Amino acid sequence: MPLEPGMSSLLLVLFLSHGVTPEDLHPLLQKMAEEIIEGSYLNALLDLIQFQSSQAWTADLSHQVLAYLNSRNVAFTIPSLQAAMENYLEQRLYQPQKLLQDLRKTDGQQFRTAMKCLLEDRKDHLDLKDVIIDLGAIREQALQSPGLNRTLFLVTLERCFQVLNSLECVEILGRVLRGSSGSFLQPDVTERLPQDLREDTFKNLSAVFRDLYDQTPARSQRALYSWMTRILQTASNTTDDSVSWVSAENLWILGRYMVHLSFEEIMKISPVEIGLFISYDNATKQLDTVYDITPELAQAFLQRISSSGFDVRNVSTIHRLGLLVCFYDDLELLDAALAQVLLHQMIKCSHLRGFQAEVQKLKADLLDIATENQTLNETLGSLSDAVVGLTCSQLQSLSPEAVHSAIATLNQVSGWAKSQVIILSAKYLAHEKVLSFYNVSQMGVLLVGVGTQAFYSMDRKDLLQVLRSTISQHLSDLSPAQKQGVLSKTIEVGDTTSGILEIQGTLFKEVSLFDLRKESRFNSSVLKEKELRRSQALFLYELLSRTTGRPEELLSAGQLIKGVTCSHIDGLSADSFLAHFRYFENNLPLLSLDQVNCLAWKYWEVSRLSMPPFLLAALPARFLASVPVSQCVPFLISLGKSRLDSLVLDSHKKDLVLRKVQQCLDDSLADEYTVDIVGNLLCHLPATIIERGISPRAWAAALHGLGDCPDLSPEQKAAVRLRLLGQCGLPQNWTAETTKDLGPFLVLFSANELRPVATKFPDILQQTAFKMAGTLLPKEFLWAVFESVRNSSEESPSFDPSPGCHGITAPSSEDIFKLAEANACWAPEDLLCMEGDTFIRSVELLGAVRGFSQPQLLTLKEKAIQVWDMPSSWREHHVVSLGRIALALNVSELEQLDLSSIDTVASLSQQTEWTTEQAKSILQGFLEDSGYGVQDLKSFHLVGLGAILCAMNVTEIPLIKISEFRAVVARIGTLICSTHVLAEFKRKAEVVFGDPTEWTSSVLQELGTIAAGLTKAELQTLDKELMRYFQPSAIKCFPDEIFKELSPEQIASLGPENAAAVTHAQRLQLSTSQLQSLQRALDGAKAHSWQDVPASASPTGTSSAGSPPGAPMAWDLWLGPPLLPLMTDLLW
User: Fold this and answer.
1) What sign results for the dihedral spanned by CA atoms 765, 768, 772, 773?
2) Which residues of 961-1000 are buried (b: 16+ CB within 10 A; e: fewer)?
3) What angle do CA 942, 936, 504 make, to 5 degrees?
4) Contact criterion met (CB below 8 Å) for 57 and 127
5) Which of 74, 242, 492, 641 has its CA 20 to 30 A from that of 94?
6) Which residue, among 595, 713, 582, 722, has the nearest Cα to 654 in the 3D structure?
7) d(CA 399, CA 1038)
8) Can you tell me the distance from the alpha carbon of 897 to that of 653, in angstroms, rounded to the nearest whole number?
9) Any idea what DSSP says for residue 530?
10) Calpha distance 801→1031 (Å, rounded)
11) How many angstroms separate the CA atoms of 395 and 844, rounded?
């Protein structure tokens, strides 16, 4: 509770006065005093707020209240009353279910006051002359308490409509729900909603539910729809089943819930009402948001609209159809002009939840109609985003003039494949001849198709203009090689004006440490909008800290906080550290585990009484083990708000942390409030708790949280599956809503279990798979998706005369689009029998499938050769489109490729599964086809080669120019090369940064894996304070026989992040003392002292540092008493 020093003053005045009769005291203050006596502190505070809102507070009122308390012989002292009040409010914030009970007991006026205080955004202060109570701080702290929103939601449902004006209640409910995750709206909520609302209140409440539609579970959507329709049907007074209750107004009220109408109900809507609805201007906005409408229901609405007198072939009607246009099927006798109108309207169809394959097919049909009797060159600019459906051969047939004329459309279209962008950019630039600022500024999304060499060949002034213009937003989409091409020209050697300061956003991360050192005009302001690598941040923070004495200036400069070292943290005074800690707390995702470890130690040393409990997880495990049971709730809340995986990397230590968590929970989650408290810790609870420890009451909230867990263990997944089967029954009995709600959990079930789902709800299963694209999905789940697509496919067995293809059902473009990662289930013979046009249209989708086996990749490569001829005839866009399929090319086929463009090579280097022979072939092919020698390679060539550089001969690496190497050290430092190659790169690094004994923290971080090329002697001479600035990837790359040469002191100084990177093979080579040091580093022990626990348990600092005397001070959730018992319980 934000009890300020002024509150103590109030209590002092209250208890230093004399007795008074009840008649002398205002009734509301008398009531407040009685509530203080009863211990109803919330009620007393609410009465005080209410009194002050209508009465002027005078000094004598304090005397009167105190006198009244004295007259009742209440034996309070100032400290005991203050402690009682603080303890009460602290407990209510930690146990919001008890706050719910207290709010239930408030009278109507107190309830109104409570809702007003908690939900208004004003920064109110109660000024009681010698007292200031910060209501804004109370509100802020309360709303940060897990479970508080749940309490407000429940008490609003229970009491608000009985106590307050119904419109006020709708506003309160809306605010509470918008601040929640959506999990509050469970199906049983509708049972608590009033059925007799006034019309305006019902409409407003319906609007709240419409706004929260996307956050509402499917079963709850269905329940809310039923609640809304019951009220609407009652109000319509229709008794004849043949007459629909669905009027135009009711459709507007339903909003997005109109998609829950049945097909039969839609077909019953009268033509007059549907005509009124579609003629209303806001109907289009409403129809633009029905993202989860199905084809069947969309067709039904289109039919009713057509029957109402609206001509669906009329342009103005088409503009009103919203997302219904995505299912337009009246294509007979459609003319080209109307097809173009439809295509323009279909841009919004990408927002649909599913059915994208059907949309693509409709666009293709409309595209054919739109281009009838006209050439593509003539119609290109009027085809909207349907141009994405054009094949590469169609795009190649376009004239440069046509692309130039249509650039205003082409540059805004989303969904281009990289191969398409390459072709269109080349066409556009063929018309422009020269790459200038003006024509680059017109390219929009097509900018990524510009070649790296073309960027490097631009006039530097034009390129600087690009960096300053709006087109720069597209630079983040460039490949690393393209970005380096831009940077090479921008920071050109010999130019009098450095362009480094002009570089913004993600592009700045590519600037080398060497080039940063040359720039002298840096200040904290210019860095705020730039993304930084840690090596850049380390250098810049150290540089700027020499010239500014205000830590807040640096700590508030965007990502510069990444560069704070332990010595910087240790160098802060106690007062300065506490005053600036909020900058670290607000930027935790940017901090390394080592930085968090240093912050934890600093906090422990200067103000352990006020230490945020989550920081204990960064200290040695014995600190955590001593948290008393009485402080479990604040500990769980604090740790639950952080990411445990980023705080604790060592599995043994994580087990100890979770053991403490389980102890605090008593191995169970009793209710939904406990789920709120544990927060992200839910993802780490053992399978036994998930299976048997989560109560039925807590399960809905827990399931909502578990759905957001990125990496559950196999045991946890098995436990969730068992609970789901117990809660929801067998999959064959699931409803559509249940299936939707289970979404990410469908991957936990076997193919046999999912077969009924695939049969009943194929669209839902496919939509679920589509949402999880980009993640590795279980093979069983993919097979279920595969079967659902195959069963619903319109394709029939082929009569293709090709050998082995008769009777094979080959993949169609539509099937491939729907399947995504489930394309990995095709048999090689199915892929080989694919039609050529299907391959051309789908090659990039197939190239992105991560689950293809080597036989499948070989088959797809053979298909590519069938369709495109031998690799010697392939152009850049062909190679780029292959993706993983390129891995199947053998050495002789790789030798046939035209690898003269670094962009072609860069696309190949994105694959990480090349054999050494293949990589050498690609490297040699590039050098031969481009005519470059190793000594001629530019920095952007080195970046484009990427992992292919690891195939270089150790005799070739010395030939790389130092001027080019130093610009891309950080990029090369991300490569996992052989020890010999890394050793050669390390020798080049010495030329740039000097002898290893001269290396700084920023240099070591910049080098990345290159640092693993250090010799035994060089490694031994490194200052132990630098050890934590190795990158973890470098630690893993050290040969075992080299790593074992580190001293115990050096190993102890690795820090928890690098210690966690030590491999099993490296551990086996370590001595007992080295292993002990490694364990200390893993545990988060202090690197510079063997005695990491202070000799005394007494606090060495104060939690109120930095606050001037008499200033208002808010009580913080993590400050004050919570850790006090810890001090005496710790075993030293």
Assistant:
1) positive
2) beebbbbbbbbbbebebeeebbbbbbebbeebbeebeebb
3) 45
4) yes
5) 74
6) 713
7) 55
8) 52
9) B
10) 58
11) 16
Strand ranges for 726-823 from DSSP E: none
**Whether the Cβ atoms of residue 295 and residue 321 lie closer than 8 Å to each other:** no
Q: Tell me how far apart the alpha carbons of residues 898 and 867 are, in angstroms, rounded to a whole number.
A: 18
Q: Which amino acid is at 424?
A: L
Tokens of 962: 């130092």
Nearest to 973 by CA among 950, 955, 996, 991: 950
Task: Give the pair of three-digit tokens for residue 1034.
Answer: 């470098």
| Site of tokens 């990589």 | 919
Alpha carbons 678 and 691: distance in angstroms, whole number: 17
Paired residues of 505 in beta bridges:
530
Q: List own/partner pairs for 26-31 with CB under 8 A and 24 or more apart.
A: 26/51, 26/55, 26/61, 29/61, 29/64, 29/65, 29/68, 30/68
What are the extents of the domains in the chain? Answer: 390-498
Position 4 scores a pLDDT of: 44
The overall longest dimension of the chain from CA atoms, in Å, is: 108
Is the Cα torsion angle 1102, 1105, 1111, 1112 positive or negative in sign? negative
Buried b (16+ CB within 10 A) or exposed e, 408-435: ebbbebeebbbbbbbbbbbbbbeebeeb
**Residue matched to tokens 């205080």:** 117
Q: What Cα–Cα distance (Å) separates residue 670 from each residue in 31, 56, 188, 667, 702? A: 36, 46, 19, 10, 11
∠ CA 312-318-323, rounded to 5°: 110
314 vs 1126, which has greater pLDDT? 314
Question: Parallel, antiparallel, or unpaired for β 125-127 and 132-134?
Answer: antiparallel
Q: Which run of H or of E encompasses 658? A: helix 651-665
What are the structure tokens assigned to 42, written together?
Answer: 């919330």
Tokens 């500990």 correspond to what residue? 635
C-alpha distance from residue 897 to each of 520, 823, 940 (Å) = 46, 27, 21
Q: What is the pLDDT of residues 265-274, one digit of tens each?
A: 999 999 999 9
pTM: 0.89
Contact yes or no for 1016/1045 (Cβ under 8 A) = yes
| DSSP states of 160-229 | IHHHS-HHHHHHHHHHHHHTS-STT--GGGGGGS-SS--HHHHHHHHHHHHHTGGGS-HHHHHHHHHHHH
Please check whether residue 536 is in contact with residue 1003, taking contact to mean a CB–CB distance below 8 angstroms: no
Tell me the three-class secondary structure of 930-948, residue by residue. HCCCHHHCCHHHHHHHHHH
Helix/strand/coil for 669: strand
Sequence-ordered list of residues with C-beta below 8 angstroms from that of 10, at least 6 positions apart, any chain: 62, 128, 130, 131
- The residues with which 133 forms a beta bridge, in sequence order, are 126
Residue matched to tokens 């422990």: 604
Structure tokens at 602: 């600093």
Tokens of 1024: 């132990």
> Token match 């009580």: residue?
1115
Which residues are 134's β-sheet partners?
125
Encoding tokens for residue 694? 């989560």
Q: Which two tokens stand for residue 379?
A: 């119609």
The answer to whether the CB of 456 falls within 8 A of the CB of 490 is no
Average pLDDT over residues 120-145: 73
**Contact, 812 vs 793, CB < 8 A?**
yes
Mean pLDDT for the chain?
A: 89
Closest CA to 381 of 370, 372, 394, 393: 370
Q: How many residues does the chain have?
A: 1132
Structure tokens at 1095: 């000799």
Cα–Cα distance measured from residue 10 to residue 24, given in angstroms and rounded to the nearest whole number: 19
| H/E run at residue 693 | none
Residue type, 820: A
Give pLDDT tens digits for 364-402: 999 999 998 889 999 999 999 999 999 999 999 999 999
